[in-house]
Amino acid sequence: xxxxxxxxxxxxxxxxxxxxLFRGHFQLFHVLYALRDRFRQEQSAHLCIDPxxxxxxxxxxxxxxxxxxxxxxxxxxxxxxxxxxxxADVVQLLKKFWDxxxxxxxxxxxxxxxxxxxxxxxxxxxxxxxxxAMRHHPDRGGDRQRLQDLNAALDVLEKNELKRR
Length: 165
Known about the structure:
The chain is mainly alpha-helical. It is built from seven helices and two strands.
């Protein structure tokens, strides 16, 4: 079941208002993480918690010992986030999320122009760019528009690389 389906089933109707959406989301995930802790303690089940998929799975001994620190768990366990988060905070969180999402979308599109897919390092990106730029350069009988597309793709990927550092 998805988070959206859960929120609708729990009666959260106004999912367009950012603060209402945040509060519903926070309350749901607070309860889900507490329930996951209970299942682990009882060794009865594993609760998969993801906005797109919330599901109860069979318990597998030792599974919880192999995980890294769960920062989301700590965030949702702290109810002060629910009480102290303002509408402006939520709008900023949503903007940050969508900026990152669109940045990844632009990265994937730029990689496709360069005939690459993730995972790929920046050195490989530059090598591929040079190879394709030489092949498609108008002075070598190539297509000017294709070269411009390659240049634009490299620009997107260079900016993406700078943000990562």
